[in-house]
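Customer escalation, tier 2.

The customer says the design service returned an amino acid string that "doesn't look like it belongs to this structure." They asked us to rerun it and document both sides in this ticket. The original structure tokens are below, unchanged.
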């Protein structure tokens, strides 16, 4: 599995995307039956299929972060590289002040889906 950098619409949100990405890598990496590929420079974050192939990953977790008026919207997708399709996607909306809760909710939901689908 690979977890890509989360795309952002504003430069100041890059750190938010990095925090979500890092939380996902740490939580998914703690699973016994999931191997998370380490990050590598030069891998495109805007094309999950190309990134997955370059990282030799079966599945890729990717997404985006948007912010408006103190609210965050995070869109997360799980892409099966072998089948070239999105196998799960979800949108998460929270107040900016609930960032850590949001990261935990996203990681928990991603883990639930991965375990249930046996990707």
């Amino acid at each position: 599995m690979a977890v890509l950098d989360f795309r952002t619409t504003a430069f100041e949100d890059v750190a938010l995307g990095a925090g979500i990405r890092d939380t996902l890598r740490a939580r998914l990496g703690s699973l016994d039956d999931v191997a998370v590929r380490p990050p590598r420079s030069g891998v495109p974050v805007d094309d999950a299929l190309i990134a997955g192939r370059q990282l030799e990953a079966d599945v890729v977790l990717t997404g985006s972060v948007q912010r408006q008026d103190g609210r965050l919207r995070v869109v997360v997708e799980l892409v099966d590289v072998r089948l070239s399709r999105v196998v799960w996607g979800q949108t998460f909306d929270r107040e900016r002040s609930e960032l850590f809760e949001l990261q935990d909710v996203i990681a928990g939901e991603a883990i639930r889906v991965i375990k249930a689908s046996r990707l």
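Tier 2 assessment: The sequence is consistent with the input. Residues 24 and 97 are 19 Å apart (CA to CA). The domain at 2-117 is CATH 3.40.50.10070 (Rossmann fold). Sent an explanation to the customer and offered a walkthrough call.
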